[in-house]
Amino acid sequence: MRIVLAEDNALLREGLVLLLTSAGHEMVAVVGSGPEILPALLEHRPDVAVLDVRMPPGFRDEGLRAALEAREKIPGLPVLVLSQYVEESYAAELLGGGASGVGYLLKDRVGRVDEFLDALERVASGGTALDPEVVTELLTRRKDSPLDQLTPREREVLKLMAEGRDNTTIATMLVITERSVSKHIGNVFLKLSLPPSDSGHRRVLAVLAYLNNAQGQP
């Protein structure tokens, strides 16, 4: 894959370059500040962008802003953003801009090489990849929401869906059949009042409903 990387920490940046090139990917641009991101993305139009959320000069949300702007100019551009901390609003905003080909991982996940590369592949192929810690934080944040209607097993399935897992993987992780997974997903759609006929986007809608309902009171 052709990758644009944006990371201001020199040590992590070089580590990511080594990791990604060793995995057979091509680094078409590597930048270290917020203002450099969008021009690099527009010039190279990579297969996927890997962007730190907080970049110089402001160290606020420069990477996220660049990702959102780039996806407006290059519809469908796969973007995997990295963050030091759990910021559920970042994940919600990124997904709210169009939920295909997006990921949000904590930087600690980079050290788990197989998980990181798997998430990168999912995002590049149009899927979603949310960090399990982010998902867990979202799930425990909100009270008195439609999520309260879900059974513990349905919440487990929704959590794995939000991470971007497919039905086969969910069945393996929960040690249940794929038929059971499909049944639980159907219940989730029903309880969150999601359109049953929108088969192509039901999983994405479930993730978005999950994030939207998770916003609010800590």
Automatic annotation (TrEMBL):
InterPro entries: CheY-like_superfamily (IPR011006), NreC/VraR/RcsB-like_REC (IPR058245), Sig_transdc_resp-reg_C-effctor (IPR016032), Sig_transdc_resp-reg_receiver (IPR001789), Tscrpt_reg_LuxR_C (IPR000792), WalR-like (IPR039420)
Domain of life: Bacteria
Domain (Response regulatory) ranges: 2-122
Record carries keyword DNA-binding: yes
Keywords tagged on the record: DNA-binding, Phosphoprotein, Transcription, Transcription regulation
Domain HTH luxR-type, chain residue ranges per copy: 143-213
Sites bearing 4-aspartylphosphate, chain numbering: D52
PANTHER family: TRANSCRIPTIONAL REGULATORY PROTEIN NARL-RELATED (PTHR43214:SF24), TWO-COMPONENT RESPONSE REGULATOR (PTHR43214)
The name this protein goes by in its record: Response regulator
Organism: Streptomyces vulcanius
